[in-house]
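Troubleshooting: if your tokenizer reports a length mismatch, compare your output against this known-good record of 185 residues.
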Amino acid sequence: MLNEIFDNCNTKMQGSVDHMHRDFKTLRTGKVLISVLDNVKIDYYGTPTPLDQVGSVIATDATTIVVNPWEKNLLQDIESAIAAANIGVNPNNDGDQIKLFFPPMTVEQRKESVKQMKTMGENAKVSIRNDRRDSNDKIKKLEKEKEITADESKAAQDTIQKTTDKFIATIESTLKEKEQEILKV
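Known-good structure output:
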């Protein structure tokens, strides 16, 4: 019973860390990544569809992304969706493809990216703490229902706290590495 709570808690906390890593992919660092377009959705015959499913998305160099739609009639829709996504550049439509030219990041932009990254990290920590609270509540409920002893409850809560500390430390180290990566010119 307690092992099930531990496993569930561990899985949820790992999910929070994974979610933070996915969020990091939308951040801009020194080199432009196509993942900056991950949240851009195109209205494809009435269905919101990710950009990479309606055309090829390629980073041709450190500052340029080229979107080549498989259906040329989607060019206007793709251009509008990219403009609406507010990713920091205006799409350039040449009739065949859309090019995005990202200027080199300024110090202010880098600091803003670090601020966004820290917010993402803090959200992950809050989620982990919520998972800890939920797990501890389940343990306390088992103790209240006399399914485990007070000593077992205390030991289980200590185990949950150690798991929480491990994941918080992982997030902290990831944030430090990512901050250095973003601020490096």
